[in-house]
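Long-time lurker, first post. I've been practising inverse folding by hand and with some scripts of my own, and I keep getting stuck on stretches where the structure tokens seem ambiguous. Below is the full token string for one chain I'm working on. Before anyone asks, I'm not after the true native sequence, just a reasonable design that respects the backbone. If someone could post their per-position residues I'd love to compare against what I wrote down in my notebook.
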């Protein structure tokens, strides 16, 4: 029987490039207006693959952003359980590594979005309020405005 590797190892530059490319490909599919069921599958796979590739070469912020994107993908395809799971993982990584600003605000946004998909309006409202509070503390004005536009979609 073949031994399962502990990690998948590529040239670090190639692995980083693939992780970024998969993250960006996922965004392309998220923004596609006429996504097919196959596109949804590819989107889910690409988001997971990107996060997987960041595991050994990335920093905690890359891990948090990967979890956020996976949560967003599942919210878009209306699969609440995995969306909630990955949103919670995003927040846990932010809290464990003292990641704030933009990333913390989006962790709360992901939880608000996931709870909305799950039909839990009370939890969604609580996380939306936390998202807005965290969003007010985003240092970069352009990032703050972009974030507030995203959060306003949830109202």
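-- Answer (accepted) --
I ran through it position by position. Result:
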């Amino acid at each position: 029987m073949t031994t399962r590797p502990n990690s998948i190892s590529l040239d670090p530059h190639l692995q980083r490039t693939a992780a970024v490319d998969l993250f960006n490909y996922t965004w392309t599919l998220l923004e596609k207006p006429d996504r097919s069921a196959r596109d949804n599958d590819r989107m889910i796979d690409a988001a997971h693959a990107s996060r997987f590739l960041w595991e050994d070469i990335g920093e905690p912020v890359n891990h948090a952003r990967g979890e956020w994107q996976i949560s967003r993908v599942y919210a878009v395809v209306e699969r609440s359980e995995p969306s909630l799971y990955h949103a919670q993982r995003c927040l846990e990584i932010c809290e464990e590594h003292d990641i704030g600003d933009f990333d913390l605000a989006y962790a709360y946004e992901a939880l608000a979005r996931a709870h909305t998909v799950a039909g839990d309006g009370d939890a969604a409202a609580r996380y939306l309020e936390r998202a807005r509070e965290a969003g007010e503390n985003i240092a970069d004005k352009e990032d703050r405005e972009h974030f507030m536009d995203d959060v306003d979609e949830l109202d």
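A couple of notes from the structure itself: The CA atoms of residues 67 and 89 lie 6 Å apart. The two ends are 53 Å apart (CA to CA). Happy to go over any region you disagree with.
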